[in-house]
Amino acid sequence: MLAGIVNAALTSAMQRAFTPASNGANPAAGHPIRRQLPPPAPAKAVAPRTDDQDLKLFALSFTAFFICIYTLIF
Which one, out of 31, 40, 41, 57, has a CA that is 20 to 30 A from the CA of 5? Predict the structure, then answer.
C-alpha cells in the first residue's frame, strides 16, 4: 500500500518535470532544467578576415620572435 502511494507520487512528479513548459521556454530542450532556460540566441554573422589583420598578426609574431631571440643572444 505504501509502495503504491510512493509510486503514484513519484510518477506525478516525473510527469510534471518532463512536460514542456508553455511560458516561452525552449520546448526542444530535452532536460527539464534546459526547458526552463530561454531559447538560444541566433548566431551572428562573422565578418570575413581581411589581409590587414593577417599583416598585423605577422608583424606581432615577428616582433615577439625577434625580442625572444635578441634576449637569448645578449
Answer: 31
Q: Which three cell numbers stand for residue 5?
A: 502511494
CA–CA distance, 61 with 54 (Å, rounded to integer): 11
As given in the structure block, the three cell numbers for residue 32 are 527539464
Q: Are 29 and 17 in contact (CB under 8 A)?
A: no
Higher pLDDT pick, 51 / 68: 68
CA distance 13 to 37: 20
Taking the model in full, what pTM does it have? Answer: 0.34
Q: How far apart are CA 72 and CA 17, in angstroms?
A: 63
